[in-house]
């Protein structure tokens, strides 16, 4: 597996990482991408390590908390082989559902102590604020995060789904190594001001949902045909009219895949890798059989013709979240 650096502070990771959210779901949505199995999840993480994937993404809100525990169990005895990224910033109700945001300095400290305990480690490699808490100045939050760097509990800092102005304010407090955002062939919102700011400041890009929540694999049906608990039943891009329009986008990706004797998912990941050496996608899977296929995308070389065809497909139909979800994005 090829390696890349995130940011200018020295954080080296595999060119493709592994998102673990689907192994537990998020608070209040345990089966958001279908039922998961802890044993298979652990085996998937260990298989990723075996083939050279070193970069693992989790978060307090996944489970909640159970995902960090699962990752910690999977990495037992192999912690030194892994780069662990986790995130904080939500508060939870008594029944363990998302109840809002909380990036107050006191919650920063609480969240990290809990993450370290659950992960079974004494440091986190990359620590993100998960969503911007507009009630707390970003300088206060990043200042508290930087204290944990100085204490040796965190190596590098990042933010998730923030805009250019927030990046600049945060980076002035402590250098950021990564900005995580949804980014893929059907979601290119960060291109322009946000991406340009990251590159000006030397902040790496970590695309989550690089396969469009499975759509770009060509295997996910329209929302009406998904299980009741599946998150995508309410995703605007999977609704009937949008889904039908987005199938044309997928067809263009599949046409490039045929030329390379590859899958559409591999082409989608390779396209992201061609966006710059500072881009490290983290496709999520909870099954071993997909890990090696995703990793193989790092060896695909797309031609100018391929890239031109992929550039021409345009944006996906429908917004990427419901209105409530979009309200948490800092743009």
Q: How is this structure best summarized?
A:
With 331 residues, the protein is α/β, with parallel strands linked by helices. It has helices at residues 38-50, 66-74, 105-119, 138-150, 164-173, 193-201, 240-260, 264-273, 288-296, 304-311, 323-326, and strands at 3-6, 11-14, 18-19, 55-57, 83-88, 90-92, 98-101, 124-129, 154-160, 178-182, 204-208. β8, α4 (138-150) and β9 (154-160) form a beta-alpha-beta unit.
**Rg over alpha carbons:** 19 Å
Helix content: 25-40%
Shape: globular
In order across it, which strands form the biggest sheet?
3-4-5-8-9-10-11
What fold name goes in the CATH topology slot? TIM Barrel
Low-confidence sequence ranges: none
Based on helices, strands and strand pairing, what is the structural class? Answer: alpha/beta
Tally of DSSP helical segments: 11
Average predicted confidence as pLDDT: 96
- Tally of individual domains: 1
Give me the count of strands: 11
Main beta-sheet strand count, sense and barrel state: 7 strands, parallel
Question: CATH homologous superfamily, by name?
Answer: NADP-dependent oxidoreductase domain
């Amino acid at each position: 597996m090829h390696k890349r650096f995130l940011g200018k502070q020295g954080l080296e990771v595999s060119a493709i990482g592994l998102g673990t959210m689907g192994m537990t779901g998020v608070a209040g949505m345990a089966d958001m991408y279908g039922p998961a199995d802890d044993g298979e999840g652990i085996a998937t993480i260990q298989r990723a390590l075996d083939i050279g994937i070193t970069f693992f993404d989790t978060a307090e809100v996944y489970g909640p908390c159970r995902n960090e525990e699962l990752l910690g169990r999977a990495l037992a005895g192999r912690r030194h082989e892994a780069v662990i990224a986790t995130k904080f910033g939500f508060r939870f109700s008594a029944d363990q559902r998302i109840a809002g945001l909380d990036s107050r300095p006191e919650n920063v400290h609480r969240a990290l102590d809990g993450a370290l305990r659950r992960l079974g480690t004494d440091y986190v490699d990359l620590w993100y604020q998960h969503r911007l808490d507009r009630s707390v100045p970003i300088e206060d939050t990043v200042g508290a995060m930087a204290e944990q760097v100085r204490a040796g509990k965190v190596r590098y800092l990042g933010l998730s789904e923030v805009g250019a102005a927030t990046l600049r304010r945060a980076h002035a407090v402590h250098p950021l190594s990564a900005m995580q955002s949804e980014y893929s062939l059907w979601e290119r919102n960060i291109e322009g001001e946000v991406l340009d700011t990251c590159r000006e400041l030397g902040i790496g890009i970590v695309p989550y949902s690089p396969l469009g929540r499975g759509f770009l694999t060509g295997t996910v049906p329209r929302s009406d045909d998904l299980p009741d608990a599946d998150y995508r039943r309410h995703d605007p891009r999977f609704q009937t009219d949008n889904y039908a329009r987005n199938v044309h986008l997928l067809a263009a990706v599949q046409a490039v895949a045929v030329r390379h004797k590859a899958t559409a998912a591999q082409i989608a990941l390779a396209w992201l890798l061609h966006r710059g050496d500072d881009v490290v996608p983290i496709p999520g899977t909870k099954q071993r059989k997909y890990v090696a296929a995703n990793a193989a995308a790092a060896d695909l070389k797309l031609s100018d013709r391929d890239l031109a065809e992929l550039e021409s497909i345009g944006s996906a139909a429908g917004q990427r979240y419901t209105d409530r979800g979009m309200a948490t994005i800092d743009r």
